[in-house]
Amino acid sequence: MGIEAAFMVPHPPMIVPDIGRGSEEKIRETIDSYEKVARQIAQINPETIIITSPHTTMYSNYFHISPGRSAVGDFGNFRASKVKFAEDYDYELVNRLSVVLSENGFPAGTQGEQDRGLDHGTMVPLYFIRKYFKGGKIVRIGLSGLSLIDHYQLGMYIKETVETLGRKAVFVASGDLSHKLQDYGPYGFAPEGPQYDERIMDVSSRAAFGEMLEFDEDFCDRAAECGHRSFVIMAGALDGVDVEAKALSHQDVTGVGYGICTFYPVKLDDSRHFLNSIISKLDEETANSDGYVKLARASLEYYIRTGHKLRLPEGKSSDIPEGYSEELLKSLSDEMFTKKAGAFVSIHKNGELRGCIGTISPATDCIAQEIINNAISASTRDPRFDAIKESEFKWLEINVDILGEPEDTDSMDQLDVKRYGVIVSCGMRRGLLLPDLEGVDDVETQVSIAMRKGGIRPDDDYSLQRFEVIRHK
Question: Dihedrals φ, ψ of 62, to 5°?
């Protein structure tokens, strides 16, 4: 038993005749494909139907799984309140999944439900499924603002739990494609719209799930896609499995892309553990990083594991100090112990900021101590994030910026967003922004962000300073 099949489906409410009232015929090809999917699910006769939906409860840093034993819903918001649903949840599977996620420190569970009623991203697939199959309990899972890798990992945990319980399950990944395919569409046209649809349909038709993780999130945003994260969770639920994929249909006549694909497991395949290549790349980058970054990583890992601060090595002792390795000691340069400087430690996880703390001017006796202190603060004391857990170590990318001496500037004309960081000061208030940051492409934006960080208003009497950094990766 396990995931017997998976299905990528859209959820346009107009596809339901009571809502479309004839307009659904515009997407007859999609309707016919949906009917095929529903009949296939009925033939499988699953015990559990797992549905991921972009329109249920969603948080930026947490995956919500609908709790309880049952839920109801209707299409009243679309003037079709007579179309109703009453669904039982697979309570045991949800509870077991929640335990697995908690044990692994993964940010998902049943807390924080905002609306117990079924959402249309769940009900549209059920509308077709229930025409042919009345059995099977459901599991309803929302998306999040976390990375694509996190969505894939959630799918892996779902797969593990389904197999542990011996469930016969199907996975329904609910999500429309781009909403920017036509000028007359709900969001107008963007060139990324048809590019996204062509790409995702190609990737899905080949079951090239590793390529789903390579979609740039800015590209996805410009395409105004709806279901990519839903599809990635589904891909994770088929991790390590050779899959027979078939694209049934794709339509864009409403300005929104509707794609339907089916995926049937064939056999186990070690080459389809798609996160392994990402981990290997991160391991290689870690191995090739310099002593500044190696020290920051060792400091945060040692502190999180033991609760103790890494001590500076003393002299040229033949003994390797606790928390160090021979490789780390060899990578540390003399200037790290003889020079002082401000330092920032920036931590990213799967391409997203996970913590960043630093000092504008030196607060300790040497750069090495500055790095040790700030690595601990960035990983455990950045107020924007929860403290990093040991289970996250393998996903972390760390940068260390060593700051040069700030120098006064008369105007923004003397700044360069790629070369210089900026400090904006007004009395005791100060805001700093490092140079060469993604998404900060001009001096005005750089100064504006620094001012907001320091609580400084545009009409305040403020001064500017610039500084250079040496960035270590």
Answer: -160, 140
pLDDT surpassing 80 at residue 318: no
Interatomic CA distance for residues 5 and 443, integer angstroms? 52
Separation between Cα atoms, residue 348 and residue 351, nearest integer Å: 6
Count Cβ neighbours within 10 Å for each residue of 78-101 and write b for 16 or more, e otherwise. Answer: bebeebebebebbeebbebbbebb
**Is the model's pLDDT at 428 over the cut of 60?**
yes
The amino acid at residue 219 is F
DSSP state string for 421-452: EEEEEETTEEEEE-SS-TT--SHHHHHHHHHH
Query: pLDDT digit string (tens) for 67-116?
Result: 999 999 999 999 999 999 999 999 999 999 999 999 998 999 999 998 89
Calpha distance 332→127 (Å, rounded) = 63
Q: Look-up: residue for tokens 């959402």?
A: 119
Q: What is the pLDDT of residue 410?
A: 84
Please give the distance of CA 302 from its chain centroid, rounded to a whole number: 26
Residue with tokens 């040991």: 390
Instruction: Say which amino acid occupies 319.
Output: D
Q: What does each C-alpha distance from 69 to 75, 89, 170, 369 come to in angstroms?
A: 21, 5, 19, 53
Asked whether the predicted pLDDT for residue 317 surpasses 60, the reply is: no
Q: What is the pLDDT of residues 217-265, one digit of tens each?
A: 889 999 999 999 999 999 999 999 999 999 999 999 999 999 999 999 9
Tell me how crowded residue 28 is: count the other CB atoms within 10 A of its CB.
13
Question: Which string of DSSP letters, residue by residue, matches 119-159?
Answer: PHHHHHHHHHHHHH----EEEEEE-BSS-HHHHHHHHHHHH
Task: Check if the beta carbon of residue 267 is closer than 8 Å to that of residue 39.
Answer: no
pLDDT category at 411 given cuts 50, 70, 90 is confident
* Contacts of residue 319, Cβ cutoff 8 Å, sequence gap at least 6: none
CB 27 within 8 A of CB 250: no
List the strands of the sheet with 48-53, edge to edge: 137-142, 48-53, 168-174, 2-9, 258-268, 241-251
Which DSSP category does 65 fall into? B
H-helix or E-strand spanning residue 251: strand 241-251
Torsion of CA 196, 29, 242, 394, to 10 degrees: 30
Distance CA 233, CA 172 (A): 10
Distance CA 327, CA 406 (A): 34
